[in-house]
Amino acid sequence: MEGEDKGSYEAPPTCTLLDVLLKNRRPTGAVNQVWPRLYLSNTCNPKSNQTNNGLTHLILHVMNLPGYYGDTGVAYLGVEADDSKDFDISQFFSETAEFIHTALTQNGVVLVHCARGISRSAALVLAFLMIKRGLSLMEAVETVRKHRNILPNVGFLNQLRKLDSQLHRRTEGH
């Protein structure tokens, strides 16, 4: 738009994000594909048919024993993150985005898991969509919400808002 300062982009306010995240909620299953070959889940047993779906890569909300996943042939990344508004999950944004991107580039199937499949795992998937697929935070939220109810905690939303602003400034050349 003429006269608009492109450097003034602001991520959507937290209250707007919460409105989008809380409206039109409907039942979703334990495992949902939210992007081609990328799944969000609150269940994590790579040996079960429910979560397998050709699974090649797994992101867990805690570091689990290598012995449990070692015989599955699944590559995994452990992310020790508390589902707390005070926890800095942004420290994992780049690493998990790269892990997902690499897996998908190799035609892998990725499952991102946390206890309820709505906060920690959702925040990591949203960050991936923003960092590696160029979506804004709102576009990422709307994309995932088409397939699964998510609700990252307020602290995670604020960290995603910060990432959104940083990425937008970078694409604008600032």
Give a brief description.
The protein is an alpha/beta fold and 174 residues long. 41% of the residues lie in helices and 12% in strands.
Detailed description of the structure:
With 174 residues, the protein is of the alpha/beta class. It has one domain: Protein tyrosine phosphatase superfamily (Protein-Tyrosine Phosphatase, Chain A, Alpha-Beta Complex), CATH 3.90.190.10. It is built from seven helices and five strands. The protein has a five-stranded mixed beta sheet with strand order 1-2-5-3-4, with helices on one face. The longest helix is centred in the C-terminal third of the chain and has 18 residues.
Descriptive terms for the model:
174 residues, Protein-Tyrosine Phosphatase, Chain A, five-stranded mixed β-sheet, 5 strands, globular
Describe the main β-sheet briefly. Answer: 5 strands, mixed
Strand segment count: 5
Helix content: 40-55%
Order of helices and strands: HEEHEHEHEHHH
Helix-strand category: alpha/beta
Alpha-carbon distance between the two ends: 18 Å
Average pLDDT confidence is 86
CATH architecture title: Alpha-Beta Complex
Total of DSSP H or I helical runs spanning 4+ residues: 7
Question: Mind telling me the CATH class?
Answer: Alpha Beta
Estimate nothing, just give the exact number of structural domains. 1
- Indicate the overall shape: globular
Sheet-strand content, in percent, reads 5-15%
CATH superfamily: Protein tyrosine phosphatase superfamily
